[in-house]
Design a protein that fits this description.
mainly beta, Neuraminidase, globular, disordered N terminus
């Protein structure tokens, strides 16, 4: 059942406006529903957005998210209910905001499984106008702006067999031009995030049966692992270089924190089972939840 959008807006408003510390926002499943939570490292996760939602981005006082039907919602924090973005082909997912909060990019898919074919659309957040941005061969997903807003990293993939989709990391200019692979070969590479304008972190099974986080220097075109697996994915980089990510443990999947500059043992910052949560996905840092404070 699709939740009432106004109820979602009211549910998210008070906690988000009260958030003053750096926190990680993530989607989690409690056994019945997906919802949006945030956690300050070392504290207990707090419910931010109740209802069936997967993934969100927050920047410059705006929150954008997709619902299970693939509709994209935009809300100005502290200014009423969310608005459905019109004119997008459904289903869509994984909306990402530009650093200045003026625009967004979203992946929209031609098939309901969201695994075989997709393209990117640009949304002007002032008038909610929509325009095609990039449509390469096969699957396009997981767009994310670089910190300066000039580039977008994303995943491009194709179906190798009925059981397997090969996915690689690509980078393009923010206007959709100059798309190029930066991590391909035979390895599977997903979940890009930017540490700075020339450094990416992504999940990869390169050189190992385990899925680990890798750091890739775009200027030097070199990459190195920064976690040890066995299943580390969906990284979210903080402006100071720390990376929050979803990692597998004997207990299931938990939220961890690591520092690529000092890769000691990662710190577990949310144990989903302990907090009554079964699974977690799509972490993002919420440093700019309270705009201009």
């Amino acid at each position: 059942m699709i939740p009432n959008v106004r109820a979602l807006a009211l549910a998210v408003l008070a906690p988000l406006m009260a958030q003053a510390e750096d926190a990680v926002m993530f989607s989690a499943f409690d056994g019945s529903n997906w919802a949006l939570y945030s956690v300050v490292p070392g504290e207990t996760p707090v419910l931010q957005l109740a209802g069936e939602t997967r993934g969100a981005d927050v920047r410059a006082g705006r929150i954008i998210f997709a619902d299970p039907a693939g509709r994209v919602h935009l809300q100005q924090i502290g200014a009423g209910a969310a608005t459905v973005v019109p004119g997008l082909p459904l289903p869509c997912a994984q909306p990402t905001l530009s650093p200045d909060g003026a625009s967004a990019v979203v992946a929209c898919f031609r098939f309901a499984n969201r695994q075989d074919d997709g393209a990117f659309f640009h949304i002007d957040l002032e008038d909610l106008s929509v325009s095609p941005l990039y449509d390469g061969p096969g699957l396009q997903k997981s767009p994310i702006y670089s910190p300066d807003g000039s580039q977008i990293a994303f995943v491009s993939g194709f179906r190798l067999s009925a059981e397997r989709v090969i996915e690689h990391i690509w980078v393009m200019a923010a206007d959709g031009s100059g798309a190029r692979p930066i991590a391909d070969g035979s390895d599977e590479n997903i979940d890009p995030t930017w540490i700075n304008d020339s450094t990416l972190v992504y999940s990869s099974d390169a050189e190992s049966q385990a899925v680990r986080l890798w750091q890739h220097d775009l200027q030097e075109d070199t990459a190195r692992p920064i976690t040890n697996g066995p299943a580390d994915m969906e990284g979210a980089a903080h402006p100071d270089g720390k990376v929050a990510y979803i990692g597998q443990t004997v207990d299931g999947f938990s939220l961890f924190l690591t520092d690529p500059a000092n890769p000691t043992l990662p710190k577990r910052i949310a144990v989903t089972e302990t907090d009554g949560l079964i699974a977690a996905h799509d972490p993002v840092w919420t440093k700019e939840l309270v705009a201009d404070e």
